[in-house]
GIY-YIG nuclease family protein ([Muricauda] lutisoli), 111 residues
Amino acid sequence: MMTRKELKDQYKQMKFPMGVFQIKNISNNRVFIDNSPDMESKWNRHKMELKFGNHRNKDLQADWNRYGEENFTFEVLSELKIEEGENTNYNSELNTLQDIVLQELDNRNLY
């Protein structure tokens, strides 16, 4: 059995998918765009905030309440590849990537 320290070290070595994603309302095609170095965790955070009724984006929360969870999807728009052996902070690259995605969408149907 692994020690607690070994488990923590193993977790730190894990690589999570990072990039830009959208939460899409399939009823009205509005989208909420975000980015994260760990997209799954960030999606779970958004989902829990929406379920508890305290998401920071009030328009998204209102639509979630109105249409229900079943009318929303999580979609990866662009994934950032991790450079092997690098211990880099990718936040700047993720923000730039999100800006590019937002420019492509041209603010249509955004929350």
